[in-house]
Amino acid sequence: MKSKLAALALGLAALTAQAAPTFSFKNVPVGWNGAFSIKLAGFESFSGNPFAAGTQNFGILKITSIQTIGYGTTTIWADGDNGAELTGVFGGITTDASSGGSFLRSTGGSAAFYLNAAGSYAAANGSAQGLSGYAAAGGGCVVNALCYNGISNVANGQLFLSADYVPGILGGLSPITVSGSLDATTPLSGVASGYLKVTGGSEYDRFNTNSLLGGLADLLAKNSFCTVDNGVCALLSDAGGAGPNGWQLAIDDPVKGLAKLPEPASLALVGAALMGVGIARRRKSA
Predict the structure, then answer these.
(1) Where does the record locate the signal sequence feature (predicted)?
(2) pTM for the full model?
(3) 60-77 tens-digit pLDDT
(4) 268, 275 Cβ separation under 8 angstroms
(5) Residue 249 burial (CB count, 10 A)
């Protein structure tokens, strides 16, 4: 009997080790209205002159935590929770002809975020793969595509969110999706921002809230970046800043997404219901 129990325990342990990572919030403050901030870091590049029309901006990132806004700074998700990590790829952000001087104005653009087992990105050598990480991803893909080795091709991984940049950052009828500035001196540094509309992924229902830009967007991305060999910026980016090999810019904690999630109230109701079921079962067994 003991040997059977031991074998069963080993089998359950193996199944647990192979289980796909999951995502959920923790330490949710009572009364939280759903406003949150996404903390992340990574690397990016331009396909050519960043001020020339038609130049592509692309990169990769890793989310380090998600925190509440307005209810203290409570971390409701952190890298490694439930054996998971969140990493992303963005691209297709195309410099518009209206860019000039130090102004960066772009159209288009999209992003894809993946929920993978913790450590998957590091196991693939992370951003140190440089631009070759695109070709190494799942049969290979071109630079600037929404795929990257250790992000989009991880076993048991899943698309967490897909999103498109939408016009509106300049207001009115402007087609610009990303607006910012770039200091052309050395080292390079700059800022950019743009609205994102969630389009799919396993957490689509959680983050598709239509809470920004009059219902046209779900997230507001704010990006700050600097030359990859700038020690301060690179050190804080992507687990130690192991980023050159083709990357031009390091992203230091760039994106803060703001939205109102429909989850908190329903979570409380579900929790109360489950507690009631538990109490009823204990009473019945007694």
Answers:
(1) 1-19
(2) 0.82
(3) 999 999 999 887 889 999
(4) no
(5) 29
